[in-house]
Amino acid sequence: MLKTNASRTPALARPTGKRSVGADHPISVVQANSLPALVQRELERMILDGDLAAGAKLTEASIAELLGVSRGPVREAFRALEGSGLVRFEKNRGVSVRQISVEEADQIYELRAVLDEFVGRRLAQTATPADILELRQKVEHMEKATSRNDVDTYLAANLDFHDRLVELANNPKLLSMYRRLVNELHLFRRTTLAQGGTLPISTREHREIVDRIAARQSAAAGRALFDHVMASRSRMHKTYDTPREAREPASARGGKRSR
Fold first, then answer.
1. What is the pLDDT of residue 23?
2. How far is Cα 109 from Cα 115, in angstroms, rounded to an integer?
């Protein structure tokens, strides 16, 4: 069911005067969002969190039952998720969570590197002191997650950091394209960031990016972002070019026996 906590909302008493409800109240949530948008948001969360795995088949009936809604909002949500790159419609096969090949991920990383270089150059020219402070705080959040080796928190903070960079570039078309690319890369990035020793390296690269932006070094900021994305691409290749047996921890291979 969608998480609106409606089942725990007490019966409304007879009003005695005007009274506002908080933004997180179930009524406010429903008023501020259409039902298809709420369904889309929940499905997006489930896909990005791995609850719905890459390649998983999705049907209107099963999702409607899972979320406790009718099939109409689910159908609209599927269309929106296709536009954001998270699901795929195939003739006679229905809807499934997208699977991205290593070759396609390679192309996406290259395109992202070019876009991010542009973003770095622009922000070195336009970012305000408040913007830079906000970015430094986001890096500090990532550093705290790194110190705990908290991959899930780090991944969310990492996505938030880069998304905010692109938002600050103030180009809606770029932001829409960028978000689609990030959605498509999400599962690859979770795997590569989970590699041992990767979080401190990635965190250091983020701090260097903000330092270049703060110093108004346009070319250097752009290059730092370009190199950061291409380094992620290299880590992706290191992961997926390595035989699976070499990537799995010993505990995961415990049940396997040589033949």
1. 47
2. 10
Give per-residue pLDDT as tens, 136-180: 999 999 999 999 989 889 888 999 999 999 999 999 999 999 998
* Contact of 71 with 64, CB cutoff 8 Å: yes
Fold classification of 26-97 is: Arc Repressor Mutant, subunit A (1.10.10)
Whether residue 221 contacts residue 210, with contact meaning beta carbons closer than 8 Å, is answered with no
Within 13 Å, how many C-alpha atoms sit on residue 4's CB side?
20
How big is the chain, counted in residues?
259
Encode 8-34: b = buried (16+ Cβ within 10 Å), e = exposed: eeeeeeeeeeeeeeeeeebeebeeeee
Q: Which CATH superfamily is domain 102-242 in?
A: GntR ligand-binding domain-like (1.20.120.530)
**pTM for the full predicted model:** 0.69
